[in-house]
């Protein structure tokens, strides 16, 4: 092994059955790497069942900031055979395993009992490293005074897989040991030390047998600095706490629930109530009423839950409630769809959900860091303009785990908007919906002298009394919808969109939401000087910054729009708002987020004259026949090795396309 084997970034994956602790192992490793100074980006894929199905966690480890994953894996740590060869036990195989993702000369760490599956992997350009996990577990338990109890402690296999990876990579074990102890928190003690011992034995074994054989090494760690490892749901939750959110309502739904659970765990340290309601209708209605009650209110949900909330949006808008802030964690649809997979499919719905014309601000965060600041800003917008604010994040942002600088809160100022001043109330009666020059009426807080008011979900006059007057209707509609014009004028340009790179480059990548990370990394890889490619990220979807972004779009020779949905929702929004149609539309709707490799592939295809619409998956541009060809390949592999598999439901009679 020589110095040339060091990489600018190293890709590690751990795979195993859900419930086996792979997420714990990956996040312990990520913390240890972060403490050593590395930049880390972690991304997990998991099934929607509770336990048993396959899950995989990637870490991208680098000496410089990284914001996305890549398709290639340099070291795969497999807890089970499914990680190696895929889901071949079922009538319709779900995935092909991960062996095909290993880089040439990369390696797989696997348990000795899974040796029989290695012959299924028809590759002679990768290394296979067998680990005696069962023996190492028994050795550790014997040292701890628990011989012969390996079956009862098999859950500690995840610690051994972690230790083996650390040893094979030549990484210092002590930061990992400390991270293991930290992960047990108050339970740290004998159980934590048992896990440390198991991991240490596996580390020593792998270091002795495999470290000298590895073809790839971790990059050099940069100087240590102040940084944190954080998930998207945590960043949103911290943003709410920083903004002074007083009530969080929710009904459990994946992947949004993790944010509410995080807030529940921390509400005792803040003036916050977390309320689990009986359904999503109750969640948004409770948030609207709380906003009228004077507290900053929020609810968090996913697509199916948000589908039940449009009536509540109208309730908030016509009564001019200061909010609520609604965080929508997008996932694969329609209906229940892919509950734990990624998609950007709710943009059009978020923009139009509800009956009639409902003013709402719609923001789309591009990464974990933005999601913190966008969450804080959303509460200010809700108070300032007295309308619902929808914050679009997604499954990828919610569960990604990333090193980030500590959030800068020094310039974050809470703005509660115009509030009723009894001393300035010359007419002696508080008109909650009074016409004002900018369309925003002062609001009262319950208990304020003279602040009692009427409001209703019927059309009403400035006093809040129901009326169907033509003149009043016109004035009230102009008042409410005019808030969007006011917001468009007042929200700073850098919060509405972001241009990464130089203006006027020949090729412009256009994207929104969590496509940002992969695009930023891809452009740095393809064009370090920034002379050919740039990236336009749309951050505020309503009010759309049409006048600001149209000139940027028109200056590029080619605009390539990236959408995490089937129907090209951003491309259609841009065309409807600006009249500009992107030259190429790249879509991904397989339930997995864009990788850096997929962005590179699509941009290169666009430059070389690729089609106007491209579908990407697994790092490739694919045609309509891809899914069936891949499925047939999996079925054939299952047939080939059928004698090694347990009895299963047969394929449909005469299955042969």
Explained architecture:
This protein has 657 residues and is an alpha/beta fold. The chain has 4 domains: 3-225, Pyruvate-ferredoxin Oxidoreductase, domain 3 (3-Layer(aba) Sandwich); 229-404, Thiamin diphosphate (ThDP)-binding fold, Pyr/PP domains (Rossmann fold), CATH 3.40.50; 418-491, no CATH class; 496-622, 3-Layer(aba) Sandwich (Rossmann fold), CATH 3.40.50. 36% of the residues lie in helices and 19% in strands. It is globular, with a radius of gyration of 27 Å. The model has no long low-confidence stretch (mean pLDDT 93).
What is this entry, summarized?
By secondary structure, the chain is of the alpha/beta class.
Topology record:
Elements: E1 9-17, H1 22-35, E2 39-45, E3 54-62, E4 73-78, H2 81-85, E5 102-111, E6 127-131, H3 133-143, H4 157-169, H5 173-184, H6 190-209, E7 228-231, H7 232-243, E8 245-250, H8 257-266, E9 273-276, H9 280-292, E10 296-302, H10 303-306, H11 310-318, E11 325-330, H12 347-352, E12 361-364, H13 368-385, E13 389-394, H14 395-399, E14 401-404, H15 470-490, H16 493-496, E15 497-500, E16 507-512, H17 515-526, E17 533-538, E18 540-542, H18 546-555, E19 558-563, H19 569-578, E20 584-587, H20 596-607, E21 613-617, E22 620-622, H21 626-640
Parallel strand pairs: 1-4, 4-5, 5-6, 8-9, 8-10, 10-11, 11-13, 12-13, 16-17, 16-19, 19-20, 20-21
Antiparallel strand pairs: 1-3, 2-3, 2-14, 7-14, 12-18, 15-17, 21-22
């Amino acid at each position: 092994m020589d110095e040339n084997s060091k990489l600018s970034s190293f890709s590690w994956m751990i795979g195993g059955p859900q419930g086996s602790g792979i997420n714990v192992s990956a996040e312990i490793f990520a913390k240890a790497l972060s403490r050593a100074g590395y930049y880390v980006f972690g991304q997990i894929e998991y099934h929607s069942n509770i336990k048993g199905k396959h899950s995989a966690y990637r870490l991208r480890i680098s000496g410089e900031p990284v914001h996305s994953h890549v398709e290639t894996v340099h070291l795969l740590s497999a807890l089970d055979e499914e990680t190696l060869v895929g889901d071949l036990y079922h009538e319709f195989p779900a995935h092909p395993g991960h062996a095909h993702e290993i880089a040439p000369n990369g390696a797989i760490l696997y348990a000795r009992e899974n040796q029989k599956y290695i012959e299924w992997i028809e590759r002679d350009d990768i290394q296979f490293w067998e680990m005696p996990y069962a023996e190492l577990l028994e050795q550790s338990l014997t040292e701890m005074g628990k011989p012969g109890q390996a079956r009862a402690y098999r859950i500690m296999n995840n610690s051994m897989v972690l230790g083996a990876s650390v040893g094979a990579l030549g990484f210092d074990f002590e930061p990992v040991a400390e991270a293991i102890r930290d992960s047990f928190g108050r339970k740290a003690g004998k159980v934590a030390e048992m896990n440390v011992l198991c991991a240490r034995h596996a580390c020593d074994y792998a270091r002795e047998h495999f470290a000298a054989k590895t073809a790839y090494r971790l990059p050099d760690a940069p100087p240590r600095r102040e940084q944190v490892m954080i998930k998207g749901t945590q960043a949103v939750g911290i943003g709410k706490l920083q903004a002074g959110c007083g009530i969080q309502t929710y009904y459990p739904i994946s992947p949004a629930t993790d944010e509410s659970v995080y807030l529940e765990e921390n509400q005792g340290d803040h003036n916050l109530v977390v309320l689990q309601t009986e359904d999503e209708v109750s969640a948004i209605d409770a948030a609207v009423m709380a906003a009228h009650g004077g507290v900053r209110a929020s609810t968090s949900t996913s697509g199916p839950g948000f589908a039940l909330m449009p009536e509540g949006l109208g309730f908030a808008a016509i009564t001019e409630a200061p909010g609520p802030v609604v965080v929508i964690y997008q996932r694969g649809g329609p209906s229940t769809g892919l509950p734990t997979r990624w998609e950007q499919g709710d943009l059009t719905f978020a923009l139009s959900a509800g009956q009639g014309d409902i003013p709402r601000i719609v923001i789309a965060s591009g990464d974990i860091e933005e999601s913190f600041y966008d969450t804080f800003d959303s509460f200010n917008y809700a108070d300032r303009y007295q309308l619902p604010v929808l914050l679009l994040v997604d499954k990828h942002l919610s569960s990604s785990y990333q090193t980030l600088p500590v959030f800068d809160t020094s310039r974050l100022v809470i703005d509660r908007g115009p509030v009723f001043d009894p001393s300035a109330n010359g007419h002696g009666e508080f008109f909650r919906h009074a016409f004002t020059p900018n369309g925003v009426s002062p609001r009262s807080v319950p208990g304020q002298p003279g602040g009692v008011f009427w409001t209703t979900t019927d059309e009403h006059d400035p006093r809040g009394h129901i009326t169907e007057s033509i003149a009043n209707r016109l004035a009230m509609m102009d008042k409410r919808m005019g808030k969007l014009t006011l917001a468009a004028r007042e929200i700073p340009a850098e919060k509405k969109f972001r241009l990464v790179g130089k203006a006027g480059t020949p090729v412009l990548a256009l994207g929104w939401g969590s496509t940002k990370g992969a695009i930023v990394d891809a452009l740095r890889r393809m064009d370090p000087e920034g002379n050919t490619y740039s990236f336009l990220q749309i951050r505020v979807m309503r009010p759309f910054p049409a006048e600001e972004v149209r000139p940027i779009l028109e200056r590029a020779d080619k605009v390539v729009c990236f959408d995490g949905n089937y129907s090209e929702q951003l491309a259609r929004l841009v065309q409807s708002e600006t009249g500009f149609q992107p030259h190429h539309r790249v879509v991904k709707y397989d339930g997995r987020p864009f990788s850096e490799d997929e962005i590179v592939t699509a941009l290169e295809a666009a430059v070389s004259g690729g089609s106007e619409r491209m579908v990407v998956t697994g790092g490739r541009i694919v045609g309509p026949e891809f899914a069936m060809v891949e499925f047939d390949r999996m079925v054939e592999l299952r047939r080939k090795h059928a004698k090694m598999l347990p009895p299963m439901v047969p394929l449909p009679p005469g299955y042969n396309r």
